Description:
Blueprint: E1 12-18, H1 24-37, H2 42-62, E2 75-82, E3 88-94, H3 115-122, E4 125-130, E5 136-143, H4 158-162, H5 175-181
Antiparallel strand pairs: 1-2, 2-3, 3-5, 4-5
Amino acid sequence: MALVVAQEVPTSSSMAVPHGPAGVGEARHRMREQLRRGGVAESVIDDAVLVLSELLSNACRHGRPLGGALAGDGDVRAAWRVDAGGRLVVEVTDGGGPTRPAPATPSVTAHGGRGLNIITALCEDWGVRDDADGEVTVWVVVHDDVHDPDAGHRRDDFASRVTAPAVSALPELGFADTFDALD
């Protein structure tokens, strides 16, 4: 007879995060500690913390603060929960912006634009919800069952989905000609 001890994962947490980079570290730390205490696998926590960082960065870069405050003066809302089915869901709500969140196709040299592509590769599902008063919430299902014994194992094909193309596949950079001259 096997004895299974289940640790209770807190069902939810929500916090106001300053609109800007100042509160991202605090939100990441709070999430990590709470999920650790709940017995969630470290690799799932790592993914969740990365997702939270990406969502908060996007909210501060592209969205307005909640309540009509000026950029840098107000807050956005970060929330995460493990629902009754064991799904780990992360949400970030901002005051809306001029565009809808959508994955981009950045150039190889671009300094940004990869966040939602990373989220798509890491997570089970994600989407956008329009809320009251023009608020926008981006939600992500990080893992569909944190109680699954395999929840700590990353998907085998993750690296192949986020790996940049080979330099030789980008003829516009002209590297191939340069290297040919060295032969």
